[in-house]
Specification:
Helix 13 packs antiparallel against helix 14. The relative contact order is 0.03. By secondary structure, the chain is mostly helical. About 2% of the residues have low confidence. The protein is built from 37 helices and two strands. The chain has a two-stranded antiparallel ribbon with strand order 1-2.
Length: 653
């Protein structure tokens, strides 16, 4: 009896516990469901307020908690709409791979993915999308253009041209037709291509895609100033489309203006962040110049690089890769391993940790070296690492490569190493200063400095000690890098530790001038100005300019005349004219500028402004037109010329 009673009590207790646990789980499920409803309403509200990137952050949080395979369809539909709103092609492709059926029920998304698949030459997936929409498409003309593009990428150019010329369209569709016809003509048929683009611009003057194609064509022709204007116009006309920002930034970077490139990428992140732009910005901020961004506040939309980009943004300052080498797995697919940013960050990390063998292995077997951000840097890092490991400096078969052909500039360090590598197959006897530098703690800093990676050079420099008896350009270049990336005071502190070569003394004087410490600057400048060297030339110019700025006109003119090289140079003659202007002798200044008008842009600008102010419209037109030939990207000059031409027309009338 007691046993039965005990069993009954236990059964009742277990039932109550089961009921209680079930109620708790039921309540927990109810709470989670309500939380998700609130999150969903919040995400929808953000999307409607055109804040799709913030909506995606909420969606990613829900997916991470619930599992990507178990998320509600309404969330997936919203995610798709967000990617479409942001024009996030990478995110749409990723969505297509993971949620194929949902994407194929959205015509706009299907079109975007199909267009991307053409460029990726993934013809099976492209054909699948075309087939799915064959009998239900509403945007007939858009699908027509997709098939034209596919023909081109498959090598059927003549067939594509024939189909394009067979019909004209209206509005933006006609622009698309004209763009494709223009693209069939390369730089050898520039006039034909430009004619089609002119027709397109006439239909819609602020079409960002047409602007970009014009920019690309001009860039290929070497008309870089005008190309820059077109790339910039595409950014202004393209709204918050990251592709146009990236095009402009990439143009700057290829032209050697990494500072402007980095600023453009940073602007993009603040307006329309995307994973690949974050990667580029993070990379260049680590190797060239830190950017003023709050990385923790950046929300990256879903995409193929969003995970690795998010992980990188969490790294401490001054580091290039993850402390735990297991995070190499974050490289993931072949797609990620081929990213230049990730490749170089791993090389830098290996060097920073003293793992020189690993760095050399990465450089030797890099599959993407042909598309390197800095081929010269890669070649010379391999040479230096080989020399440090086996004591031999030789040409490993990579030879010499001018990675700066667009700017025409190659650092003297790389030129010297090229010459040494090519002079003998196994050149073991190096100049004393080069030998010492390559074996020192500063070897990699020198290489990064020569490659223009200023921040990387600083990170590899022990700033609190003297660099040593190395080439003059080395301490000078590091001081400049510290000046740009840290402060003038930090640059002075470093410079004071180094051997005071004439060129470094000159830089110290410039740093003093930037702090308005005239007495300290003048002492060295007066001594350096007496040198019959390039340093003496620049010191004389700086000294004369400083004296002029402080109204010591006679002394400024005396310093200028005492340096024959400066006196006979264009900048010397420009300075002489400035002195005349400062003294109030405009007649003499005008004569001096007129003598050099054909070789001095400063003179042309002065004479153009002078003629404009005196309403001498013929002269103003002549000088302004000459300036535009030199600076076609200066919109102010075009505006001034338009005003001048209107004045001339009024005079004629």
């Amino acid at each position: 009896m007691k046993k039965r009673r005990l069993i009954l009590i236990v059964s009742i207790a277990l039932g109550l516990i089961t009921l209680l646990v079930g109620s708790i789980y039921q309540w927990r499920g109810y709470v989670i469901h309500k939380q998700e409803e609130r999150k969903y309403r919040s995400a929808v509200s953000l999307f409607k307020d055109q804040k799709a990137s913030k909506a995606l952050k909420i969606i990613d949080q829900v997916k991470d908690r619930n599992g990507h395979d178990r998320i509600n369809h309404q969330w997936l539909d919203l995610e798709l709409q967000c990617h479409l709103s942001l024009r996030n092609i990478a995110g749409l492709i990723h969505f297509y791979k993971t949620q194929t059926e949902i994407l194929l029920n959205n015509e706009a998304a299907s079109i975007q993915v199909a267009r991307a698949l053409i460029h990726k030459r993934e013809w099976i997936d492209f054909a699948n999308i075309i087939e799915k929409w064959e009998d239900r498409k509403k945007r007939q003309e858009t699908w027509f253009f997709l098939n034209i593009d596919a023909l081109v990428f498959q090598g059927h150019k003549d067939k594509a041209i024939e189909q394009l010329k067979s019909q004209k369209m209206e509005g933006k569709l006609e622009i698309s037709r004209l763009i494709r016809l223009a693209l069939f003509h390369d730089v050898t048929e520039f006039e034909k291509a430009w004619s089609y683009l002119d027709q397109a611009i006439a239909i819609e003057p602020h079409n960002a895609e047409v602007r970009t194609i014009r920019a690309t064509l001009l860039e290929r022709l070497g008309k870089y100033d005008v190309a820059q204007v077109e790339y910039g116009a595409a950014v202004l006309d393209g709204g918050d489309n990251p592709a146009y920002f990236d095009n402009l930034a990439t143009f700057y970077q290829k032209r050697g203006n990494t500072e402007l490139a980095l600023k453009t990428w940073s602007d993009c992140i603040q307006k329309c962040p995307t994973d690949y732009v974050v990667l580029k910005t993070f990379f260049w901020s680590r190797v060239f110049q830190p950017v003023n961004l709050d990385w923790n506040s950046i929300t990256i939309p879903s995409g193929p690089y969003s995970q690795i980009a998010t992980m990188l943004m969490e790294l401490p300052k001054g580091t290039f890769w993850f402390a735990n080498n297991n995070n190499d797995l974050a490289m993931g697919s072949k797609r990620n391993s081929n990213r230049q940013e990730l490749f170089w960050l791993r090389v830098l990390n290996a060097l920073q940790l003293g793992q020189e063998s690993k760095a050399l292995h990465l450089l030797k077997f890099a599959s993407n070296s042909g598309n390197s951000y800095n081929v010269d840097l890669g070649i010379n890092l391999k040479r230096i690492l080989n020399f440090r490991q086996n004591g031999k400096f030789y040409n490993d078969g990579t030879g010499s490569y001018n990675n700066t052909k667009n700017t025409g500039i190659k650092h003297q360090f790389f030129t010297k190493l090229d010459a040494l590598a090519l002079s003998h197959p196994y050149n073991q006897v190096l100049p004393k200063d080069i030998h010492g530098l390559l074996k020192s703690d500063y070897a990699f800093a020198a290489c990064f400095l020569a490659g223009g990676w200023l921040e990387a050079a600083i990170q590899f420099t022990p700033l609190n000690k003297m660099a040593g008896q190395y080439p003059d350009w080395f301490s000078y270049g590091l001081t400049q890098a510290i000046r740009y990336n840290r402060s003038t005071d930090d640059a002075l502190k470093f410079a004071f530790l180094q051997k005071k070569t004439p060129v470094l003394k000159l830089l110290i004087s410039e740093l003093y001038l930037s702090k308005n410490m005239l007495n300290e600057a003048m002492t060295d400048l007066e001594a350096l100005a007496k040198l019959n060297t390039d340093v003496g030339f620049r010191a004389s110019w700086l000294l004369s300019l400083t004296l002029l700025d402080n109204n010591h006109f006679a002394s400024a003119q005396e310093v200028l005349h005492n340096n024959r090289q400066l006196r006979n140079s264009v900048i010397g003659k420009e300075l002489l004219a400035r002195i005349s202007l400062a003294k109030g002798n405009t007649t003499e200044a005008t004569k001096q500028y007129t003598d050099i008008e054909n070789i001095s842009l400063e003179a042309s600008a002065y004479l153009a402004r002078n003629a404009y102010n005196q309403e001498k419209w013929d002269e103003a037109q002549q000088f302004t037109t000459a300036l535009i030939k030199q600076y076609p990207g200066k919109l102010k000059l075009w505006s001034q010329l338009e005003t001048i031409n209107s004045k001339l027309e009024t005079v004629v009338d």
